[in-house]
Amino acid sequence: MIQVKNLSKWYGPLKAVDSISFHVREGEILGFLGPNGAGKTTTLRILTCFIPASSGAASVAGYDVFTESMRVRQVIGYLPESVPLYPEMRVREYLNFRAKLRGLSATDRAAAIDRAARRCRVAEFIDRPIGQLSRGMRQRVGLTEALMHDPKVLILDEPTVGLDPTQIRETRNLIKELAKSHTVILSSHILPEVEATCERTIIIAAGRIVASGSPEELKERITGSSRLIAEIRGPADQVKSAVSQIHGVGHVEAGLVDGWNRLVIEAKGGQDVREEIFRLTSKNGWALREMRREVASLEDFFVQITAQQNIAREAPSST
Amino acid sequence: MRNILAMAQRELSAFFYSPIAYVVLFAFTFMVGLLFVFLTENFSPGSEASLRDTFNWLPPLLCVAVPILTMRLLSEEYRSGTIETLMTAPISDMEVILGKYLGTLVFYLVMLGATLFYVVLLTFFGRPDFGLLLSGYVGLVLTGSLFVAIGLFFSSITRNQIIAALLGAFFLLLLTILAWIIVQFADVKGTTRLILQMVSVMDRFQHFNRGLVDLNNLVFFVGGTAFFLFLAVKVMESRRWR
After folding, report:
1. What is the band of A317 on the pLDDT scale with cuts at 50, 70, 90?
2. How many Å apart are CA B219 and CA B227, to the nearest integer?
3. What is the mean pLDDT of chain B?
4. Which of A87, A107, B41, B205 has the highest CB neighbour count under 10 A?
5. A278 touches chain B (CB under 8 A)
6. Dist. CA A293–CA A80, nearest whole Å
7. pTM of the entire structure?
8. What CATH number did the domain enclosing A89 receive?
9. Which pLDDT score is estimated for A21?
């Protein structure tokens, strides 16, 4: 449905997007994840025909974004990051104006607006001026606008920014529901968001794709560094050295928490050493009050990967 | 065409939501009233039943009024970011510009329509020459059309409404008043004089106001309008590449 090939965008001397390629299948919901300034918005703006790419090619629903811009714009519903709206217009009036631009006939317009407004729960304030609406309401108006013409592709730039937790949950559910009949790209710099809604995630940092895959696949790539945390009562040095000698245990860090030894254990190659630790404590008569495995989160991975990128980026420029 | 009309309708309704448009409308009609009753001989016993002297003062007035109407057109879209939704909707840049131009022109015609009141007064008290009046109105519509196009162009080059209005007014005053004054009173000769005469809106408008509908002047106003609308489209297109 969406094909992007070697897409680059320069802003003067600044390379905002650096030769990225990806594709999105029909009905897929893709998360575009990255820190602020990574090039997410720029990429989405190229896909929506707002700005042209410096090089590379992109197509949406088989239409080239540069040469067949009008066709692309027809099949896309777009919610820009800042949700720009005309404050002096009333919601219905605005939606009607946009529906006209979308080429909907007068009878279709009323029906399409009603349907989308109910879906995004805009109906209750549809006759109020946009200038009076709260941030969450404006976001919903933007979303209504993006989906009222039933577009094949929905592009949502940070759709939950500025919403309260209830609204965030509602918006996520709505997006998931929309994904059943639309292809969706959404961008975010918040991980749980992408983890909760997307089937596939592309992590982008400094204009480049640094990782991609389903949230589970991304997690798998980092299980090697999972850690075990155990709290054991016993003589501090004995406990530490005994645990360190267990087969498969790598680095051990020990500390004291209200009289208990708190050990952070790194296992080699992702081995499970929990059983050995239990045997050790029961053999020595030490008490064990807690033992849990800390599976690395997507968040750790994200921080780790973007930090690497920043180092890589700074290194050549400093020499 | 549907897109142009949708755009024009939005712009026109935006005027009626905006206090600035009402202030301009009020100031304009007030000034025309003042001109008609006190500042010219148009509404005094024994004088010719026409609006010629009043109309003669309108182009300078419009030099200030029109840029205030047009300053919002694109600058506001740039500033608030609504340009992004507009430029990603299936509407071409040219349709956006034409729609905005048309919407503003209609508002201008409404403003001009208010002066028809004085035509009614004239027919009540005298026997005006309707051919002359019509020709004067044609001149005012053409002048307004050119001014709206120029104002729209200046709004397309900046995201700051005040700058758009000031640049527009400055340019229009240059074109309308300064060129006219120089041609009338200063001693310039040769090509400079020819160019000034050619662009002098005031000179050309006065032809219409004297009842002379000249093809040359018609082409100037219509061509000028098209030229500045074309420039505005190009400026809008070029902003994508930044």
Report:
1. very low
2. 11
3. 91
4. B205
5. no
6. 40
7. 0.84
8. 3.40.50.300
9. 92
